[in-house]
Write a structure and sequence with these properties.
The structure holds two protein chains of two kinds. Chain A is mostly beta strands. Chain A has no helices and eleven strands. In chain A, the strands form two sheets. In chain A, strands 2, 4, 5, 6, 9, 10 and 11 form a seven-stranded mixed sheet that branches. In chain A, strands 1-3-8-7 form a four-stranded antiparallel sheet, with no helix packed on it. Chain A is globular and about 35 Å long. Chain A starts with a strand and ends with a strand. Chain B is mostly beta strands. Helix content of chain B is 0%, strand content 55%. The chains are: A mainly beta, B mainly beta.
Amino acid sequence: DIQMTQSPSSLSASVGDRVTITCRASQGIRNDLSWYQQKLGKAPKRLIYAASSLQSGVPSRFSGSGSGTEFTLTISSLQPEDFATYYCLQQNLYPLTFGQGTRLEI
Amino acid sequence: QVQLVESGGGVIQPGRSLRLSCAASGFSFSDYAMHWVRQAPGKGLEWVAVLSYDGGTKYHADSVKGRFTISRDNSRATLFLQMNGLTPEDTALYFCARDVAANHLDYWGQGTLVTVSS
């Protein structure tokens, strides 16, 4: 199975901050990676697909980069509604595997 | 608009069976592969299973293989997850999700909670 190592597991930040979350894959997955945002008790919401493509309707302050084994999600200027948990998902091989999640808090 | 509504969850004793449903609307269900993903209380997301658009190809996570079976009824635009031999480790919120292409999960339902407890 492909292991996805996500870091940090939690992050304290303030409105206006720039934050970066990283996922590392245990083997190369090309650009077969998505990023999701999840708020408490809600379904995950896709932010980024194919490593760097912005989902329609998602604010441009979210961006993704990377290929192969290392990927990043960047939020350029945190807004109050961005405080949530973020997950990466590799879609290259079954079983699909998620990172452990990053809890972004004030 | 795309809607996915899960149902069938509840409290069930270990060893028993349960079938979850996911009713789809707002898109041509029979054109899309579909997935189940679960989330144990306070934990991260775990992929469970995928089924191709026509039901011909399926994969299950090792943690559920031999106990859970994904299936679909395209005439009713509904996805199912048959869960047998449930254990407390299966306690989770179960989501269905649409696969827009090549395992890209775009729309998700709100989930149905399964609690396995004696």
